[in-house]
Fold this protein.
Amino acid sequence: MASLLVGTQPAFASANWQEVKTNSNWHCGDTESVGAERGFKAQTCIVANSSGYAQQVVVVSNFSGYAVWLDASITELNKKLPAHNCNGTTFQSGFQRACLGQSVYVGCNGTNLYSWSNVEISGYTKQTAEAVHRHYC
């Protein structure tokens, strides 16, 4: 997933949850607990590459010991309006997964980027901490 952003081509948005493979291109907000379920955490990240592209990603971890219903949406870069919905799914314990938002050209001249995600777990919704990145190529 992240390796797609390292090259010159941007990665495509996906509503499906995928394995998380981070690298130095990932700039994430704080990891926060979601809902009353212990062991369920979420964060929003901005993944930016040397070609001036960036995309938002919501990352979730479930180490609660049981499966939960998971749904999420990612905001458009620099706006609090939902721009990308992730497919709702039963999320098994013991995994970390990511849903990728739209890859957009943001340039290389110190553009300030920020994004949020809304994560729903078993009926409880929480907005993640803001992910912030000042992007230079």
User: Anything to note?
Assistant: The radius of gyration is 14 Å. Residues 1-10 have pLDDT under 50 and may be disordered.
